Amino acid sequence: MKVIRAKSAGFCWGVERAIDIAREYAQKGRHPVYTDGPLIHNRQMMEVLTKEGIREVGDYSSQTQLEVKAEVDDQSVMVVRAHGISPERRTYLKSLGMEFRDATCPDVGIIAGKVRLHAKKGFVTVIFGDPKHPEVIGLLGYAEAGGHVITSQADIDALPALGDKVCMVSQSTMFVDEFAMLSNHLKVKYPSALIFDTICGATKDRQSDVVELKRQGCQAIVVIGGRHSANTVKLAKLVEMQGLPCYHVETAAELDFTGFKKYQMVGVTAGASTPAFLIDEVCQKLEAVV
Ligand code: SF4
């Protein structure tokens, strides 16, 4: 069977950078290397990193107090994840008394910078994103004059009067079309609103590659990645929106490869937090289907 692997499948540069930063400390013998919540939203990769001495503490959304004080010494280091954190969380993590290293993805840093700059000028920020996602929680922390998270037109309709200083940004991993539709809707309610399309290039590439796989003739698409990875879940949804059968799995073990005999061409893509070894295994097993 012909298998087409999306060019963008797997780690985005922001995730790769955060992993490299944490690994560099671990390889230098710095232990423990703490991360405030899972460094990436991929269970299999987290198992690999844990064995290397990179230890996740705290919770998914980086909000709980960390019970690490008793263990902290001059070898400990705290690495901030690619999702970034709020200014308050930064102050808290720095107060823990260990080296602090910020591995926030520069693309998330740009969004935080826009929110902070406009908040200082008195703008209210509307963020299109998942209110429970750590990136959105972090960004909200920069919206000094007020921040609102929306996911739908109904959420925009329910917003109060916000004056004439409103700006809108997006969580980096949202759908491009949805952002365009919602920003147009926001403009109707707040005509002077400033709109910043802050969906990152890596996300846009992954989304357009799904469309490209269909254009190339793939009859089904396998999406590999964590079920709690926002961008992977979105990729799976996008495949379904293209009208193609979608197989969302975390590992090759979840796939019934004999069921693929009915296809001549299958596409493979993976979320930004999916390591190459998981993608390689799925591709090899699919290629062996006759
Ligand atoms: S998905 Fe985009 S914003 Fe998020 S870590 Fe990757 S490159 Fe950075």
Walk me through the structure:
The chain has ten helices and twelve strands. It is an alpha/beta fold and 290 residues long. It folds into three domains: 2-10 and 201-287, Cobalt-precorrin-4 Transmethylase, domain 1 (3-Layer(aba) Sandwich), CATH 3.40.1010.20; 13-104, 3-Layer(aba) Sandwich (Rossmann fold), CATH 3.40.50; 107-195, Cobalt-precorrin-4 Transmethylase, domain 1. Helix 9 (230-241) links the parallel strand 10 and strand 11. Helix 4 (106-120) runs parallel beside helix 5 and helix 8 runs parallel beside helix 9 (230-241). The radius of gyration is 20 Å and the shape is flat. The relative contact order is 0.16. The model has no long low-confidence stretch (mean pLDDT 95). Iron/sulfur cluster is lined by residues 12-15, 82, 105, 107-108, 172-173, 200, 202-203, 231, 272. Iron/sulfur cluster binds next to helix 1, helix 4 and helix 8.
Compact overview of the structure:
It is built from 10 helices and 12 strands. The chain is an alpha/beta fold and 290 residues long.
